[in-house]
Amino acid sequence: MRKAAVRQSIMCFCLLVVICTLLCGAAYADQRTEALLSVAVGELGYQATKGGYTKYGEWGGNAYGEYCSEFISWCVNTADELYGFSMLGDAYPLQTSCDQGATWYRERGRYITVNGGLRGEEGQFWVTDGVSVADRPYVPQPGDLIYLEWYAYNRLDHTGIVEFLTQDSDGTILIHTIEGNNKALGITPTNVARYTYRLDDDSIRGYGVMTEGLVGRRLEKGMSGSDVVYFQRSMITLGYYSGEAIGKYGKATEKACREFQKAVGLEQTGVADYITWQKMAEEIKVRLQEAEEKAALKAQAEVVRMIAAAKEAIENSWFGDFDPMDEATAWARLTAPVTVLDVEPTTKVYLSTGPNGKQKTNDEHRGYFYGTSVAVHVLEEQDGWVKIEAYNDCDELEQGWVRGRRIKTVTPNQTYGIIVDKMTQRLYLYKEGHLVTTLLISTGTTKGQNEDFNETACGEFFLCSWTGGFWAGELWCNYAIRFNGGDLLHLVPSIFVPDGTETGKEDFTRCENALGTKASHGCIRVQRVENEDGYNHLWLWNNLKGQKNVKIIVWDDDGRKLPVTAAETPMYYNPKGGVKYHTLARCQSVKSTYLPLTGITYGDLSRYPYTELSPCGVCGAPERPETVAAWNQAIDVARSSQ
Fold first, then answer.
1. Are strands 215-216 and 487-491 parallel, antiparallel or unpaired?
2. Using CA atoms, how far apart are residues 278 and 272, in angstroms rounded to an integer?
3. For residue 200, which of 290, 261, 116, 281 has the smallest C-alpha distance?
4. pLDDT below 70 — which residues of the chain?
5. How far apart are CA 372 and CA 340, in angstroms?
6. Which of 206, 214, 249 is nearest to 228 (CA)?
7. 165 and 200 in contact (C-beta within 8 Å)?
8. 490 alpha-carbon distance from chain centroid
9. Residue 600 domain flag
10. Is 451 among the domain residues?
11. What pLDDT score does 346 carry?
12. What is the DSSP string of 274-314?
């Protein structure tokens, strides 16, 4: 094993300041670190079975494998779930091996070597002043990941979480960690335990840290590796490199380096030396700060704009929040008796402004509810009249009066029930109290000039008739099942393209690619291809036919929190002028000449230059992180004022 290069430098004044700060009870780096360490502490004492099984390994995909990396990722994921963070894939890697985790850090400029690192990693310097990391070693902080080499094979063998530092009376600085599967120092079978290392322990090879851009290495043409990946990504951020960050320092990277050096007034060598790294870090800091400030202002404006709408949605919501996976709650909603208007399912009953028979409106889209296909809520009764409410065809909560004799109570089907969630764009099928399957759907679009008429009305309805196929412009919509008077649950539409025959070839591509997004004209499109459970719309058509009073709940997305997308989720964009981000590398909305698209992550959207990209509606990209945060904050504010 190699010894630390310069041990006396550890005791220099600047390091002592850092150490004293840590020893004097300074707060953790941030709340995320505190959350992670609290989870890790709670796992102390967990032991692998004699066969080597651990819950961490099982979670990571190898129940009986080595689990030091999986233990850390499991703790990060658990902290995310418990405390509402999104650290996995953003602050910490999803790692199933030490090399994988260290590479993830290197590609983000967040891996700091110790003792020179592994062979080929020597030469790191501090970006702030160019001093060699070997001459001024890094002092780890709580929440850092520590990487160690036990054997002389030039590879990382183990990893753990830094918990805190102490200092012995002789001045020796000690690193205290929490680790799983420490074979060198632990017991057999291995367990989760605390361990201690001297700061200059020669088995330590590096740390994964939470801050980018602390260190760099001299890079030039012909070099490769994770440091090159980070440099290329930085040049992309600054707008000097348009290629992919593949980790090879070729002509394009050298050219980008020269152009950047020219822009900041440096000698145009094409070599990424210390001063180039320093200028790059300064420029990136400015760009990121500007992007973050702009995103924050935009998000705040969104909060202000949406609070009123959120309050109204919460006040008017029939359903509130519930989990479709909660079978007992879902089934209770699906089988609870409902009140309907006692006329034919497609007959319109016009409302009155009061218990007087005066018609409420002459608007062809408002002022009425359909008959026995629509559930209504009774609000009050007066002089033989009943005030009721439900959502109209424009998805607006509407109230009015009808004669009391016109309403009746219906008990829904006790075998089948359906929940359609407009937020997730999923159909949930239940049978006898159990969730049977989930299908992809498209409800009505909320964009465009006809959005009021196209949005699928929410509420509680009954499937009332099997009407079959119909044309909607060029779209052929087959196996339609009527509900809500005029709305239909049908197979995802197709178009017929010429193929030399009289009818042409039936093509589902366009509408199937939009499943999972709001894309219909008000009806509910359901997937054609069988899912892994063997279900599709044709199954609904064949098996629900003959069943009476099957309730379908169309669950509104207004007044509900938006789902939070994990930071590591893959996204794609066109670096050559694209303004959208996508969930598919070959999204059909993009010209084929730009395909496949370049991969980024959802977490990258909060970083310049991706802060201006907007979600693609064709492939169902999630809302931007700032939009999600703003809307969810508005919901919290609205709920707190109720």
1. unpaired
2. 10
3. 116
4. 1-29, 362, 447-453, 617-618, 642
5. 5
6. 249
7. no
8. 29
9. no
10. yes
11. 92
12. HHHHHHHHHHHHHHHHHHHHHHHHHHHHHHHHHHHHHHHHH
**Which of helix, strand or coil describes residue 604?**
helix
Scored b (16 or more CB within 10 A) or e, 215-225 reads bbbebeeebeb
Q: What pLDDT, on a 0 to 100 scale, did the predictor assign at position 24?
A: 37
Residue 434 contacts residue 525 (beta carbons within 8 Å): no
The two tokens of residue 565 are: 């997308």
Token couple for 262 = 């020219």
Q: How many angstroms separate the CA atoms of 440 and 436, rounded?
A: 14
pTM above 0.70, yes or no: no
Does one domain contain both 390 and 453? no
Q: Please state, in angstroms and rounded to a whole number, the distance separating the CA atoms of residues 326 and 448.
A: 35
What CATH number did the domain enclosing 465 receive? 2.40.440.10
Identify the residue whose tokens are 């190898």: 62
Contacts of 398 (CB under 8 A, 6+ apart): 351, 366, 367, 369, 389, 390, 391, 392
Tell me which residue range forms the domain holding 493: 416-555
137 CB-side CA count, 13 A: 27
Which pLDDT does position 443 carry in this prediction? 95
Q: Percent of the chain beyond pLDDT 70?
A: 94
H or E element at residue 232: helix 226-238
Answer yes or no: do 71 and 207 share one domain: yes
Task: Count the residues in the chain.
Answer: 642
Other Cβ atoms less than 10 A from the Cβ of 15: the count is 17
Report the C-alpha gap between 269 and 37 in whole angstroms: 45
